[in-house]
Amino acid sequence: MSQAELIQLGASLVAVLFVAWLVRRMGLGADPRIADADHAIRLAEEAEAGFGGVDVARDRAGFAAIVRNGEGRMMLIRAHGNFFAARPVDASVVGRLDKEFLTLTPPERSFGKVTLHLGKDAGMWASRMREVARG
């Protein structure tokens, strides 16, 4: 290998390492997950100051959660790119129960449909959705 080729190889390696460092620094390619109930409550509080979450249904994979506050209001939180997005759950949100899965479809298409694997608690949260729809 000639000296020019070695220099080109070295420069290419430095450029690749710089891009990898920059991607990591910017948080690109991260896999955001809701770690636990406390994390979900913090995310709901970031979305609406004073929300005061008291109960959480977290998807088993950690990609989404429903947070309920003391007044019975609910907030849907989901991974959105490298961050999280939150929307209030009200009568306009359509809920569908399928065994251990609860699928919520907000009217806002850009937020998208969210399916949460809640296990045996899916039915209880679907029931809470019906209460919100009536209320």
What is the structure about, briefly put?
This protein has a four-stranded antiparallel β-sheet, sandwiched between helices. Strands 5-6-7 form a three-stranded antiparallel β-sheet, with helices on one face. It has helices at residues 3-26, 37-47, 122-134; strands at residues 53-58, 64-69, 74-80, 83-89, 94-98, 101-105, 114-117. The mean pLDDT is 89.
Break the fold down into its secondary structure elements and pairings:
Blueprint: H1 3-26, H2 37-47, E1 53-58, E2 64-69, E3 74-80, E4 83-89, E5 94-98, E6 101-105, E7 114-117, H3 122-134
Antiparallel strand pairs: 1-2, 2-3, 3-4, 5-6, 6-7
Give an account of the 3D structure.
By secondary structure, the chain is of the alpha+beta class. The chain is built from three helices and seven strands; from the N terminus they run ααβββββββα. The strands form two sheets. It has a four-stranded antiparallel sheet with strand order 1-2-3-4, with helices on both faces. A three-stranded antiparallel sheet has the order 5-6-7, with helices on one face. It has helices at residues 3-26, 37-47, 122-134, and strands at residues 53-58, 64-69, 74-80, 83-89, 94-98, 101-105, 114-117.
